[in-house]
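Structure first, sequence second, as always.
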């Protein structure tokens, strides 16, 4: 869909409900209704969810559903995500974010290892992966990256 150049209004109304973070199962449910490039958009999402499996393992699922109607075309999209965090020690852990986006037919993964080897100084290893879910079979690789980062706090 191509949108013509011009000015657009984006007024919206949002309704939120937050579940208490002190509970084993928490999160936010949100409904939005508003203008979108000369049309309308309705969004329903559940985010910031947290499921504490045990003291070391936490899951944060999320979903966003969009229904968009414009003079230039209509579409719906779904974004599914899950962040998983495993804390090995207070200074060492692994987190992973998995996302499926129906708007661009992608499945993306971001896995990060973090180690605070001395207070204020970190070592990171990050693996990102982006795949195309449109072809049949196992999603095809679009791109992948491996990043290593080392920080060191200097005190004078």
């Amino acid at each position: 869909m191509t949108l013509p150049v011009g000015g657009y209004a984006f007024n919206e109304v949002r309704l939120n409900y937050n579940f208490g973070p002190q509970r084993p199962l928490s999160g936010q449910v949100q409904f939005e209704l508003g203008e979108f490039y000369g049309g309308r958009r309705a969004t329903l999402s559940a985010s910031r969810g947290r499921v504490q499996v045990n003291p070391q393992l936490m899951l944060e699922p999320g979903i966003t559903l969009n229904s968009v109607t414009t003079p230039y075309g209509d579409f719906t999209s779904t974004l599914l995500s899950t962040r998983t965090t495993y804390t090995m020690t207070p200074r060492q852990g692994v987190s992973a974010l998995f996302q499926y986006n129906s708007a661009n037919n992608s499945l993306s993964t971001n896995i990060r290892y973090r180690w605070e080897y001395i207070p204020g100084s970190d070592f990171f290893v990050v693996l990102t992966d982006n795949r195309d879910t449109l072809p049949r079979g196992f999603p095809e690789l679009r791109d992948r990256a491996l990043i290593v980062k080392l920080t060191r706090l200097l005190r004078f």
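Margin note: Strands lie at 12-19, 25-36, 39-52, 57-70, 73-89, 92-101, 106-118, 121-132, 140-150.
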